[in-house]
Amino acid sequence: MALFLNHEGLSFHYQDTGFGTPFFFQHGLGGDVNQPFSLFRPPPGIRLIAFDARGHGETRPLGPPEKINLASFAGDLLDLLDHLQLPRAIVGGISMGAAITLNFTLRFPGRVLGLVLLRPAWLDRPFPENVAIFSEIARLIREHGAKQGKEIFQQSLVYQKLRAEFPDTANSLSTQFDHPRAEETVAKLERIPNDAPVDSLEELSGIRSPTLVLANKQDPIHPFEFGRSWPKRSRQRSLES
């Protein structure tokens, strides 16, 4: 059943399943609630919740472009917690979702039972080189439309190299053109890469919640070194592969 929260003139789509300790697990850039729900099946005692961020999935309309940023998304997460009358929860996410929930944890530590960062793609500076390709995808959508833009992208040397070395990453990037509202919501691909979840890595030392960081070496968009940076700064636990 589709669930929606009306907030700030937007209808936020979310999913909520299971019973027990709430775990908000947020999707990555260009994804939607199907991503976290396909990656994690909640065991008994865990209530899994996720929402489509602004400009993503079934959350409509786009809203003010200036609110397409990690801090606003973290604020939307807070509003959903309040709507569901949940004083505290485990929070986590994939890529952009990891950045959202890290920002949330630093700003609202009293609401966090634990933090899960899966394949972080940001550190403490905007526009890291690893996510620059999203801006190129946005340019192609702006200039050529989603359909033709995808064709041009798949003919590019960058795509061909990714497809040869990291086929899953290449396929994931191609799906950015396939969203039925790709042209309407292209601002997310322009603005999010220019954001950062924290102003300084030194802020991580203030995290007191149990934290799990997961990273691997098979994904250039989510550098293994980024995953290792978080537990070094926060003295928390990481899993590497």
Structure description:
By secondary structure, this protein is of the alpha/beta class. It folds into two domains: 3-128 and 197-240, Alpha/Beta hydrolase fold, catalytic domain (Rossmann fold, 3-Layer(aba) Sandwich), CATH 3.40.50.1820; 129-187, no CATH class. It has eight helices and eight strands. The chain has helices spanning 34-39, 70-83, 96-107, 132-155, 157-165, 167-174, 187-191, 224-234; strands at 3-7, 10-17, 20-26, 45-51, 89-94, 112-118, 211-215, 237-240. An eight-stranded mixed beta sheet has the order 1-2-4-3-5-6-7-8. Helix 8 (224-234) links the parallel strand 7 (211-215) and strand 8 (237-240). Helix 5 packs across helix 6. The protein is globular and about 50 Å long. The mean pLDDT is 92.
List strands and helices in order, with pairings.
Layout: E1 3-7, E2 10-17, E3 20-26, H1 34-39, E4 45-51, H2 70-83, E5 89-94, H3 96-107, E6 112-118, H4 132-155, H5 157-165, H6 167-174, H7 187-191, E7 211-215, H8 224-234, E8 237-240
Parallel strand pairs: 3-4, 3-5, 5-6, 6-7, 7-8
Antiparallel strand pairs: 1-2, 2-4
Helix pairs in contact: 2-3, 5-6
